[in-house]
Amino acid sequence: MLASLPEREREAALKSLPPETRAYLAYHWPFWARPNQLPPPGDWLTWLVLAGRGFGKTRCGSEWVRSIACGPTPLAAGSHHRIAIIAETAADARDVLVEGDSGILSVHPVDFRPHYEPSKRRLTWPNGAVATLYNAVEPDQLRGPQHDAAFCDELAKWRYARETWDQLQFGLRLGNGPKQIITTTPRPIPVLKEILASPTTAVTKGSTFDNRANLAPSFLTQVVSKYEGTRLGRQELNAEILDDLPGALWMRDQIDKHRVREAPEMVRVVVSIDPSGTRGQSDDGDDIGIVVAGKGIDGRGYVLADRTCKLSPAGWGKRAVSAFHEFSADRIIAERNFGGAMVEHVIRTTEPTVPFKEVTASRGKVARAEPVAALYEQGRVSHVGSFAELEDQLCMIAPEGFSGEGSPDRADALVWALSELLVDGSTFTLANV
């Protein structure tokens, strides 16, 4: 088979073919795809592609959309004609699923390629099939529209996974055989477990290593070798759905039980920063943890946003100050670290008048985290939506320490924020700046 030959031999063989055959093969996905990238047999409603980073999930979903939207000629009808395309954010829908290197536009021959109208969030094929873009930050976009097919990307990271999924299912009612594909790296969220267990779901599993031939050597060296064999690597590379870490301070069911879509009026809001000393995106240092949390009029704590990033000091300072204004916060707080006054200097340089408070740890990370974890156990904290990376870090903190890679930057920022809002100040040594 040509597709299985080494690249040099394959290119030589392809050049020997007539031009029209080469043109056809260039866009013939069954020729290039691995078997686990092709739709499974059977009468399924949901095709769940549960695979690791770099597997080729986006290409898999884009090619499936093309296969159902297009007929044998540009004007011939496909099997489905009203398609929902759902990504984690609006930017992901545009930049990854439509315009990306493996996006929907890229997998179509010119004559079959749909017309993209960004302002209308719409793709229209020459045969009249239409796909509409949605995002999991605004699940109510799906309230009302009807579809006969859907492409859901990275569902396990969706901000409002349950609400978005439910609204999609209510509208997936056109035609005689609605179908949907989910392409995601796994996380043990309840809605994904339910989909996995459904008798109408066909599951394809794959790992990063399945696509080794198409991944940059630097990726394999720096990322795969670093995380292979770790708990995070089992999830992100091998696509395993992992249960809670035994003895962890946070449990996912505690977070899920009290998750809300909207928070009440806030009496206090803080932006918390956990500095890492990183110089920016090209640095191998940890991320800068930036978490926004508030205390509601009901006395409960609410996690409002995770703005963690890996930017230069000017970049993360601007992001923290932007979050301060966006959420009408009372102050920015930050741990005294990496040069003491460094964080204050960055914030003051960005905006001199922002109220700032420095916090200094008198105990270790786990000891600081325990009172905040107790608040979750008591049901006194709610996450407003889902924060996948933050929640992953929380659920990897045990009495023995952090079981993940690097520093729990997001979790540390959350601990400082909720300690400021809800925990007795005597637990920490606080220095006003």
Oligomer: single chain
Strand content: 15-25%
Helix content: 25-40%
**CATH superfamily annotation of the largest domain:** P-loop containing nucleotide triphosphate hydrolases
Q: What is the CATH C-level name of the largest domain?
A: Alpha Beta
**Rough outline:** globular
Q: Would you tell me which CATH topology of the largest domain applies? A: Rossmann fold
CATH architecture of the largest domain: 3-Layer(aba) Sandwich
Q: Roughly how many Å is the radius of gyration? A: 24 Å
Strand arrangement, major sheet: 3-4-5-2-6-7-1-8
Number of helices: 15
Q: Would you count the extended β strands for me?
A: 17
Cα(first) to Cα(last) distance is 69 Å
Indicate the structural class.
alpha/beta
Task: Characterize the main sheet.
Answer: 8 strands, mixed
Number of domains: 2
Mean pLDDT: 86
Poorly predicted parts: 426-433
Structure description:
This protein has 433 residues and is an alpha/beta fold. The chain contains 15 helices and 17 strands. The protein folds into two domains: 33-236, 3-Layer(aba) Sandwich (Rossmann fold); 252-432, Nucleotidyltransferase, domain 5, CATH 3.30.420. The strands form three sheets. The protein has an eight-stranded mixed sheet with strand order 3-4-5-2-6-7-1-8, with helices on both faces. Helix 11 crosses helix 12 (342-350) and helix 13 (365-377) packs across helix 15 (409-422). It is globular, with a radius of gyration of 24 Å. Mean pLDDT is 86; it is low at 426-433.
Topology:
Layout (H helix, E strand, L loop, with lengths): L6 H9 L3 H8 L2 H4 L13 E6 L5 H13 L12 E6 L2 H9 L16 E3 L4 E3 L5 E6 L13 E5 L7 H11 L7 E6 L5 H8 L3 E6 L10 H11 L3 H6 L15 H6 L8 E9 L14 E8 L4 E6 L6 H14 L4 E5 L6 H9 L5 E5 L4 H13 L3 E3 L4 H7 L2 E2 L2 E2 L6 H14 L6 E4 L1
Parallel strand pairs: 1-7, 1-8, 2-5, 2-6, 6-7, 9-12, 11-14, 12-13
Antiparallel strand pairs: 3-4, 4-5, 9-10, 10-11, 13-17, 15-16
Helix pairs in contact: 11-12, 13-15
